[in-house]
Amino acid sequence: MRYLNAFVVAGLVMGLLAHYATSEPMPWWPDTVVFGGFMGALAAFLVMRLTFARKAAGHLGGAGRALFRKPPRS
Q1: Is the peptide bond preceding residue 72 cis, with omega within 30 degrees of 0?
Q2: Could you give the CA distance from residue 11 to residue 23 in angstroms, rounded to a whole number?
Q3: pLDDT digits (tens, 9 = 90+) for 11-55
Q4: Could you give the CA distance from residue 9 to residue 47 in angstroms, rounded to a whole number?
Q5: Distance (Å, rounded) from C-alpha 41 to C-alpha 53?
Q6: What's the confidence (pLDDT) of residue 74?
Q7: pTM listed for this prediction
Q8: Residues 55/61, Cβ–Cβ less than 8 Å
């Protein structure tokens, strides 16, 4: 659901921005729709990569804590 939200929000925002922010508005079809779809897919991919990186960093952090903690006193 997180990827779908990123796709929809980024696609709509960037599509509208590309249509209205240019000196001459883009045609709605196909230019604005294709641009919004591409930006939405890019945002969903970015969210996917950041999610995987956060999970990997958590695993690496746990391994680092296990390796570098003080040994128990005897």
Answers
A1: no
A2: 20
A3: 999 999 999 998 888 898 899 999 999 999 999 999 999 999 888
A4: 12
A5: 18
A6: 65
A7: 0.74
A8: no
30 vs 37: CA distance, rounded Å:
10
Structure tokens at 23: 């000196």
pLDDT of residue 62: 73
Instruction: State the Rg of the chain over Cα.
Output: 21
Q: SS3 for 32-43, per residue?
A: HHHHHHHHHHHH
Distance between CA atoms of 3 and 12, rounded to whole angstroms? 14
Counting beta carbons within 10 angstroms of the beta carbon of residue 40, is it exposed (0 to 12), middle (13 to 18) or buried (19 or more)?
buried
Which residue type sits at 65? R
